[in-house]
Amino acid sequence: METRTAEYRLSNEIRRNLESCILGKQSEIERLLTALLAGGHVLIEDVPGTGKTQLVKALARTIGGQFRRIQCNPDLLPSDITGVAIYHPKHETFLFRPGPVMANLVLVDEINRATTKTQSALLEAMEERRVTVDGDTYELPVPFTLIATQNPIEFDGTYTLPEAQLDRFMMKISLGYPDAATERQMIISPNATSPADQLESVVTAEGIASMMEDVRRVHLDNAVADYIIRVVRATRDHSGVQLGASPRAAISLTAAARANAYLQERDYVIPDDIKQLASCVLAHRIIMHTESRMNGLTAEDVVQAVIRETSVPVRMER
């Protein structure tokens, strides 16, 4: 019990550290921490200047792990991400030079500016936590989380993310503009231009890995598991949907719900965990019919409708 209390206290310190740097975004910070502890990846989609990069840099400094940044552009090659084997004349052998993906936290900035071939180089890393270069396989460090950003407004020189890659992101979130009071506080801050650079680490990568193990042990009742399945399957049966959420989505929602429960200092999942996370975990995986989109129906609308209409379990075992 003392160990669990200490780890709950540590998660609160991580949260406070981030909130001191990224003002007015408590909910988004919570989602990012949820994905980190669940071992998932995050796509942050928002217009420039809303703090996407600062949020990831702040998280990297807070957890004290290896951090690498990949700035995407059409000239970026797959080997620029995964690494390359270079011939060493003295030893008459090939030596592997790791790419930036070999880190605990990887920021892929403006991911939609990379070509589809380069984007596909991330699929193995995101799903299997390893990369293959010239037939040799290299394991990624633990923990490993990839956070990608993209601008939803600018389309010149961009490439649409394939569905297979979208499905590998546990969550898709948006920061949005701050309210007036928060924005005023930001501009009068002496560290307004680079607030993340002032942060100190409050945990190590090993500490995060230990917390992830505790998250996996959070209890999931059979009734709650059935609720998750009903929610996910209902997205496939909706009349406005062409392609609903995948089985991977159900696994992601379950892992995220466990992490959310952990951050709320519970050792068991409740239906409210699923309700809180359903939109950011499921919506980006759903493909709408063209007619539905023309009528203004969005994937978020579908998920919210499914949550309202799916019966919630009232009795659970602990």
Features:
318 residues, alpha/beta, Helicase, Ruva Protein, domain 3, two-stranded antiparallel sheet, 13 helices, 46% helix, 15% strand, ATP hydrolysis activity
Could you explain how this protein is built, in words?
With 318 residues, this protein is α/β, with parallel strands linked by helices. The protein has a domain at 219-318: Magnesium chelatase subunit I, C-Terminal domain (Helicase, Ruva Protein, domain 3). The chain has helices spanning 2-19, 26-38, 52-63, 78-82, 116-128, 163-166, 180-188, 205-216, 222-237, 247-263, 271-282, 290-294, 299-309; strands at 42-45, 67-71, 83-88, 93-98, 105-109, 130-133, 136-139, 145-150, 171-173, 241-243, 287-288. The strands form four sheets. Strands 2-5-8-1-9 form a five-stranded parallel beta sheet. A two-stranded antiparallel sheet has the order 3-4. A two-stranded antiparallel sheet has the order 6-7. Helix 9 crosses helix 10 (247-263) and helix 11 (271-282) packs antiparallel against helix 13. The model has no long low-confidence stretch (mean pLDDT 89).
